[in-house]
Design brief:
Layout lengths: L3 H9 L6 H9 L14 H15 L5 H7 L16 E4 L3 E5 H14 L8 E4 L10 H11 L1 H14 L2 E3 L6 H8 L6 E4 L13 E4 L2 H8 L4 E4 L2 E8 L8 H12 L7 E6 L30 H9 L8 E3 L4 H9 L3 H9 L14 E6 L6 E3 L7 E3 H11 L5 E6 L7 H16 L7 E4 L4 H9 L2 H7 L2 E3 L22 E5 L15 E5 L2 H10 L11 E2 L5 E2 L21 E2 L33 E9 L6 H4 L12 H4 L18 E2 L6 E2 L1 H10 L4 E4 L12 H8 L2 E6 L4 H9 L3 E5 L13 E5 L10 E6 L5 E7 L4 H9 L2 H9 L1
Parallel strand pairs: 2-3, 2-5, 3-4, 5-6, 8-9, 8-11, 9-10, 14-15, 14-17, 15-16, 17-18, 22-25, 25-26, 26-27
Antiparallel strand pairs: 1-7, 4-21, 12-13, 19-20, 22-28, 23-24, 27-30, 28-29, 29-30
Helix pairs in contact: 2-13, 5-7, 5-9, 10-11, 12-13, 15-17, 15-18, 22-23, 24-25
Length: about 800
């Protein structure tokens, strides 16, 4: 009788070379090099998908396969898109340093000894851009030593991997090391969906959600709808993956993806090159020229910025480009295993999407979005004319490339290709120009391969491997606050004041190569597809569309080792938080609900217009207080516009009748036992996943946030902290409430899923109006409210 392995080789014919590895890989393939005993469970994914397939009896989208494949109880879970709450078992957790502080403080409060799933902390948010990479990194290590030590020791104590400052941006590190097709990963950053570029479902959450998963508790997510984006044709010339998501943002707007996963599919996903060669998922040929959805970093760019349309996450189907990227980053075993389970890593033919968008890549032109919102889309060819008409400054003060959205090897190569053409004609950038590598691996590799030097030669400054100006960590010196100016970035967000705390900075987002071209020209009126530059010799020339290797020809240079493994035995590890620290503060439990309706709530502020998490809890200089709840609460809603006077950070104190800062007024109410509420507009809390925007109002005595609509992550964060996120049953009721009114919320003794609450509006003249308020609480979340917070409820269940 033939041995089993030889029998399978004979049976499989042309694939016999692969059989031995298949037998081994199906048994055990590690999720990452850093966790050799934590294995990919495609077998469990397959089992769960088969259960769901029998139950639903219909073709499944890729999003459904991965999400439902991670159900805690696939046989009995109620499933209805956009309605039911799913109980899920994510594979891993990732936290960036600004949000990890509060997440780890909450985990410490839980009393649990170790995390239940593989988890990592990434130091990328606390490094301020000033003069350049090395000096900025040294300065950050010095001024943030207390926080870095807390995160390192907490990681060691509780079994969490720690990526030191300088290692790179969390999402690039995940892409290089942890993301893989079919993974369900949650991260305490809104751009966690970046990992969808490698075929995973990667979702941004608040720290309290991360604590649930690290504690081994099933994680709850409202069953997402699925928006399909069918891509046809192929990108060419100056068009890039960034233009795909800039176009989608223009279509869906900043809230059009709320409650949905955006799933890209169609022949355009597998388009190969500008030369017109094509290959489908069956043949999977390798590129012979540059391709624009060339591999996972291009697709990651698109998924990353899906956060700007409010999407739960975005995902691409597994294909040969992902296989190539996995192999190039030392994970060929994962790629081979994914090949064996490929049917579960792509959508079923004939699957149904709740909404379908079609984009012909062959017709897509370079785009640039802004200012002040990432969904204001313009073709690059038209933005100069629009800017002149709108009165936006057309001269570009600074061009900035990098960020978690666009800092891959190819992004840097494309930008260097543009810069090299300018240098050949004796030109440098007219605008200031900065470069942010996405990781230590990217930095080391672009230094070795010469890209970094080309970008310096054209006038650029290479910053630290960190978020930097993208999140407001920018010590900008070239303008004064209040000075009207324009910057162009390859970042993802461009909210008012986000990059430099100047409300008059008009920020536009586009691809790295367009940023580089515009920085060389110095004006929004330049269109690299058609316009000419004048060289040092006086001769006119036109920039050619850039081309660059999608991956380095040699292996990636890993650079410095910046990873700290958690020790096997952490019993002697101490985690110290000084009671006098201004950066860190142990958490005290929030008070439980007293069993009564909320009577005579004072309105702290009625917000006019857009109110992002940047407005609610600003970043930039406030990042240093992310581990100290009381200190960071001094930025509560300081960016929100008060409808009463049209000003930011100026609200009426209902007792003294004096106008003052929002946090001071909230503290006054808390001191005097006055409970308060915030009234908001549409898509309240869009943007970052920062749960500080929920912790701060709870800490300062808030009880409810009433709006026309919420962004997904922020609504969940509010629930986790024991607040009531409520929406007007009739959005027009927003106009019935005035800042001087008082509100009473009734029906909390009979608080049940799907049943509206009653709100009594008490006007100063003695008249009253009654309106209805909707909510999305389920039974579990109602228990969070009653207990005072999700963490309080977790402790109750432990006891």
């Amino acid at each position: 009788m033939l041995p089993l392995s030889l029998f399978l080789q004979k049976a499989l014919g042309v694939r016999q070379y692969h059989v031995a590895s298949v037998l081994c890989q199906r048994a055990k393939v590690a999720m990452s090099h850093f966790e050799p005993t934590e294995y990919i469970r495609y077998d469990l994914l397959e089992k769960n998908i088969n259960i769901i397939r029998k139950r639903l009896n219909r073709p499944l989208t890729l999003s459904e396969k991965i999400v439902y494949g991670h159900l805690d109880d696939p046989a009995n879970q109620e499933i209805e898109r956009g309605k039911t709450y799913l109980r899920l078992r994510p594979d891993r957790v990732a936290m960036q340093d600004a949000t990890a502080q509060m997440a780890m403080l909450q985990f410490i409060s839980s009393g649990l000894p170790k995390v239940a799933v593989p988890s990592t902390i990434h130091c990328d948010h606390l490094i301020e851009a000033q003069v350049g990479g090395e000096k900025d990194l040294r300065r950050a290590k010095d001024i943030n030593q207390e926080v870095y030590n807390f995160l390192a020791t907490a990681g060691a104590k509780y079994g969490v991997g720690f990526w030191r400052p300088g290692s790179g941006i969390i999402h690039q590190i995940i892409l290089e090391n942890y993301a893989y097709p079919g993974v369900l990963l949650i991260g305490t950053d809104s751009h966690t969906p970046n990992g969808g570029g490698l075929g995973g479902i990667c979702i941004g959450v608040g720290g309290a959600d991360a604590v649930d998963v690290m504690a081994g508790i099933p994680w709850e997510l409202k069953c997402p709808k699925v928006i399909g984006v069918k891509l046809t044709g192929s990108l060419s010339g100056w068009s890039s993956p960034k233009d795909v998501i800039l176009k989608v943002a223009g279509i869906l707007t900043v809230k059009g993806g709320t409650g949905a996963i955006v799933e890209y599919h169609g022949p355009g996903v597998d388009s190969i090159s500008c030369t017109g060669e094509e290959g489908g998922p069956q043949s999977w040929p390798l590129p012979t020229h540059h391709s624009w959805l060339c591999f996972s970093t291009g697709m990651a760019t698109i998924c990353n910025m899906g956060a700007e349309i409010g999407a739960t996450t975005s995902v691409f189907p597994y294909n040969h480009r992902m296989k190539k990227y996995l192999s190039k980053t030392g994970r060929a075993e994962i790629a081979n295993l994914a090949d064996e389970f490929k049917d579960h890593l792509v959508p079923d033919p004939g699957c149904h999407y709740d909404q379908l968008i079609e984009i012909n890549l062959s017709e897509l032109k370079p785009h640039i979005n802004g200012p002040f919102t990432p969904d204001l889309a313009h073709p690059v060819a038209e933005v100069g004319t629009v800017a002149e008409k709108e009165g936006w400054p057309v001269d570009i003060r600074v061009g900035l490339i990098g960020s978690c959205t666009n800092s891959s090897y190819e992004d840097m190569g494309r930008s260097a290709a543009v810069a090299k053409q300018a240098l050949a004609h004796g030109l440098k950038c007219k605008s200031q120009f900065t470069i942010t590598p996405g990781s230590e691996q990217i930095r080391a590799t672009i230094e070795r391969d010469g890209y970094a030097q080309i970008l310096r030669d054209v006038g650029g400054i290479v910053l630290a491997n960190a978020c930097g100006p993208c999140i407001g960590q920018w010590d900008r010196k070239d303008i004064k606050k209040g000075e009207k100016n324009t910057i162009v970035t390859s970042y993802n967000r461009n909210f008012t004041g986000r990059n430099d705390a100047n409300p008059e900075t008009h920020a536009f987002v586009t691809s790295p190569e367009i940023v580089t071209a515009l920085a060389i020209a110095g004006t929004l009126k330049f269109n690299p597809e058609t316009d000419f530059l004048t060289g040092k010799d006086g001769k006119k020339f036109k920039l050619e569309a850039p081309d660059a290797d999608e991956l380095p020809q040699a292996e990636f240079d890993p650079g410095q080792d910046t990873y700290q493994h958690p020790p096997k035995d952490s019993s002697g590890q101490r985690v110290d938080v000084s009671p006098t620290s201004q950066r860190l503060q142990l958490l005290e439990p929030f008070d439980k609900w007293d069993g009564k309706d909320l009577e005579d709530l004072q309105i702290l502020i009625k917000v006019k217009g857009k109110c992002t998490t940047d407005h609610i809890s600003a970043a930039g200089p406030w990042l240093k207080f992310r581990g100290h709840l009381d200190n960071i609460s001094n930025n509560l809603l300081i960016g929100a516009i008060n409808i009463e006077n049209g000003k930011a950070n100026s609200v009426r104190n209902a007792v003294t009748q004096e106008f003052g800062p929002v946090p001071d007024t909230a503290r006054y109410y808390k001191k005097h036992g006055i409970k308060w509420v915030v009234i908001g507009d549409e898509n309240y809390g869009e943007g970052s996943s920062r749960e500080h925007a929920a912790l701060e109002p709870r800490h300062l005595g808030g009880r409810a946030i009433i709006t026309k609509s919420f962004a997904r992550i922020h609504e969940t964060n509010l629930k986790k902290q024991g607040l009531l996120p409520l929406t007007f049953a009739d959005p027009a009721d927003y106009n019935k409430i005035h800042p001087v009114d008082k509100l009473t919320i009734q029906g909390l003794n009979n608080f049940t899923p799907g049943k509206p609450l009653k709100c009594i509006i008490k006007h100063p003249n003695g008249t009253q109006e009654t309106i209805l308020l909707n909510h999305t609480f389920n039974e579990t979340q109602i228990e969070w409210f009653r207990a005072g917070s999700a963490l309080n409820r977790m402790k109750e269940l432990q006891h």
